[in-house]
Amino acid sequence: MPEIIEPFRIKAVEPIRFTTEAERGGILRRAHWNPFLIDADDVLIDLLTDSGTSAMSAAQWGAIMVGDESYAGSRSFKRFEAKVQEIFGFKHVIPTHQGRAAEKILMSLVGGPGKTIPSNNHFDTTRANIEFTGATALDLVIEEGRDPDSLHPFKGNIDVAKLDALFQSPGVNVPLGMITVTNNTGGGQPVSLENIRAVGEVLHRHGKPFFIDACRFAENAWFIQQREPGQSGRSPKEIAQEMFRGADGATMSLKKDGFGNIGGFLALNDDKLAEQARNLLILTEGFPTYGGLAGRDLEALAVGLKEVLDPHYLEYRVATIRYLAERLMTIGVRIVQPPGGHAVYVDARAFYPQIPAVEFPAQALVCELYEKGGVRGVEIGSVMFGRSVDGVEHAADRELVRLAMPRRVYTQAHVNYLCEVFERLFAEREAVRGLRIVRQAPFLRHFTAHFERLG
Length: 455
Ligand code: F0G
Hints:
This protein folds into two domains: 21-50 and 310-453, Aspartate Aminotransferase, domain 1 (Alpha-Beta Complex), CATH 3.90.1150; 58-307, Aspartate Aminotransferase, domain 2 (3-Layer(aba) Sandwich), CATH 3.40.640.10. The chain has 15 helices and 16 strands. The chain has helices spanning 21-30, 58-64, 75-88, 99-110, 124-132, 160-166, 193-205, 217-227, 236-245, 271-284, 295-307, 311-331, 348-351, 361-373, 412-427; strands at residues 45-46, 92-96, 116-119, 136-139, 177-180, 210-213, 249-253, 264-268, 343-347, 375-376, 378-380, 387-389, 392-394, 400-404, 435-439, 450-453. It has a five-stranded mixed beta sheet with strand order 2-8-7-6-5, sandwiched between helices. The chain has a three-stranded antiparallel beta sheet with strand order 9-14-11. Bound molecules: ligand F0G. The site of ligand F0G has 15 residues, from helix 4 and helix 5.
């Protein structure tokens, strides 16, 4: 096999600022051991998220210059609408400033008390927008999707029998069903074409619309091409088109597989729902031909949606994540298997078995990563999903650190450096202790909590 190389040349660069370990110790202390409170300028390699952090191409920057900023009927909207329709196939395209704005509009229209919206795993913002209306967000991912060691090729699949059974429960009111591709909450795991078809079929048999959270649709299409029987001869674009063919609509954050620094859309076929959605759009986002975006953003996103389906790009993208995963495993680091499309999830409980969950092993690991290596990852464990009741900590069911790769931003040398940092952290792992929270907000505490290191 020839080496898979970065399928681009670098035309513009952004210097990164180097710090010493001693400086980072001080920075971490001043940030109360919460990397969310560290200035981005003090981070060497930032793997907090793959959202909005992509490098745009020369063609995208060029498209920015021809953006039409007309309030109504902008040429840039036409180009954006045509590109979204070409790939996703929906009649109505409603641009929003990011994914959650599309979710907010959709859930305001279909949600409400007593309703249940099933998915494989709802992403946090989708869940929050559902629950905000009083409805229930239900996760129906297959059993293998909950097992970090399972090597199932499509761990993002929905348990179709459970979905069907949901409709037999008395009094259940399902306004629509969803599926997230790839399944971010479950580790960036893909969903098969067969499962997408089966989920659509069950929902339609019960007369319910089927919506797809399309954030990482291109990575999902690539996994289908690589792993699903009979799909290897098709292009990612053809596969993506088929993924959406049986659906009635989609929400998307274009900050992921749109190669955008901002952007999203709600797309759907139903005329009446689309009209209601546009009325809500005007209230908070803007006129329907720009939504929450500038004309130039729409131009850059239309180009991004084309570029993201390039097989050379997708091959490199998935190979980067796999390379990082394999090197970490060689060191002895336990990760969620198999590696997904946009991130590697490290099992912090296995890394620091001496730290109990209520002393936040994954937070300890993100702090060590920053202090020793200048690398920023994100805790997905008891800080994010646990809670404090009357001063007593209740742990979450997993302690992970997500290393999310921004698109087209870092090179293989950055990944090699990251692995060297992990080698050192692994060698020094027995001396590391946990943390305790000294200040926290009543909800979404992980963003602002202050910690102290335990001695
Ligand atoms: N759906 C999924 C699957 C996501 O991963 C995200 C964002 C959203 C919806 C919301 O989109 O941020 O544009 O409003 N995920 C980011 C992350 C924040 O870091 O995983 P948004």
